[in-house]
Amino acid sequence: MRGAVVVTGGGKGIGATIARRFAEAGHPVLIFDRDEAAAVSCAGDIRSHGGVASTFVGSVTSEEDVAQAMQLAVERYAQLAVLVNNAGISCNRPTLELELDEWRRTLDVNLTGVFLCAREFARRVSAGDTESVILNLCSMYGVVAAPNRLGYCATKSGVAMMTKSLAVEWAELNIRVNAIAPGYIRTALLEELIADGRVDAEALLGRTPQKRFGTVEEVADLAFFLASPETRFMTGQIVGLDGGWTANG
Ligand code: NDP
């Protein structure tokens, strides 16, 4: 059996597709999500396709939950190979109306969650022969600015720097750390926002050189590639996946 993959926020959206992608390649997957129904459904789907998956229901912001989730993965699958720090939240509102607790919640999930999961994972993978990989879900809004998303932009920019800092610090532990910075990805949530008129699809596509949204499969394929031996000399990188948005200065 290949090493286990822990996917935070793996119950739905991008995380669920990443979990399925690794499971299809023979990795046992631990889906660590606060949404129990979504986690159970995703794990069930993986198992129905012949894969191996478990769930842990909890929050990446809780030191105790994070320790228990990693412990469960080690007990079930012995060897941890990959951590995908995918759980993330956004709070879209004008900064003049942003409440302190919304700001703190965004920092807690998007930054503290990444720190806690990365630290616990690194403590449990042994230095030496076997390489381990951490992949962080950043965002193009960690690279370029957008109005009404102060906490999201600040935290995703923080995730980019955490990616570089951890890559430098943990190279000696044989842990590679890279990040994916997606643009607009066609998730169920984006579909809903477009249908409600809260997101102007035409304006977003007009700004995107490739004139389309990305797919969750494209993010999962990139995640799988970044965890593969083909990228073994690559660490500390923030890889854009945005149809040309950030190149379109
Ligand atoms: P979703 O909201 O669809 O899924 C995220 C999952 O993570 C949900 O099940 C959510 O549960 C869970 N989650 C949230 N907070 C926690 C927590 N504290 N502990 C454990 N689980 C938690 O997200 P997406 O698939 O859209 O995005 C995934 C990642 O990709 C995020 O980091 C996001 O910032 C990034 N990204 C997404 C883009 C997009 O277009 N979708 C573009 C760029 C980056 P619940 O539903 O209960 O909150």
Automatic annotation (TrEMBL):
One of its GO terms (biological process) is fatty acid elongation. Pfam families: adh_short_C2. One of its GO terms (molecular function) is oxidoreductase activity, acting on the CH-OH group of donors, NAD or NADP as acceptor. PROSITE patterns: ADH_SHORT. InterPro entries: NAD(P)-bd_dom_sf (IPR036291), Sc_DH/Rdtase_CS (IPR020904), SDR_fam (IPR002347). It comes from the Bacteria. NCBIfam families: PRK07231.1. Belongs to the short-chain dehydrogenases/reductases (SDR) family. This is NAD(P)-dependent dehydrogenase, short-chain alcohol dehydrogenase family.
